[in-house]
Specification:
Elements lengths: L3 H16 L3 H7 L3 E3 L8 E6 L8 E6 L5 E3 L8 H11 L1
The structure holds zinc ion (ZN).
Length: 91
């Protein structure tokens, strides 16, 4: 269950991480996720494009009210192994 407080806590966490001098915290959080700011008050489907260089596959995400962290890669490339494999093949 996502309550109102969860979203607030998440935003505060992201804000703190983005402001953090220690880049590694920020980077760790954003290895698999990206920040999408939106004002939807209900769940909404949206098409995103895989962030992996040379992939470009589309995948669906569900925007959830007060949630701003979403997957950055298509379903296949959510595994680090698959990302490394993809980049090696490309090289
Ligand atoms: Zn991909």
């Amino acid at each position: 269950m996502l309550g109102r407080d969860t979203g607030t806590a998440e935003r505060a966490l992201v804000k703190a991480l983005l402001a953090d001098d220690k880049q590694e915290h920020h980077e760790r959080l954003l290895v698999h996720n990206k920040v999408i700011k939106h004002n939807f008050r209900y769940n909404a489907m949206r098409l995103e494009q895989c962030s992996l260089e040379g992939c470009g596959a589309n995948y669906e995400i569900t925007l959830v009210p007060r949630q701003i962290l979403y997957p950055k890669y298509c379903e296949k490339h959510r595994s680090e192994y698959q990302r490394v494999l993809h980049l090696r093949r490309k090289a």
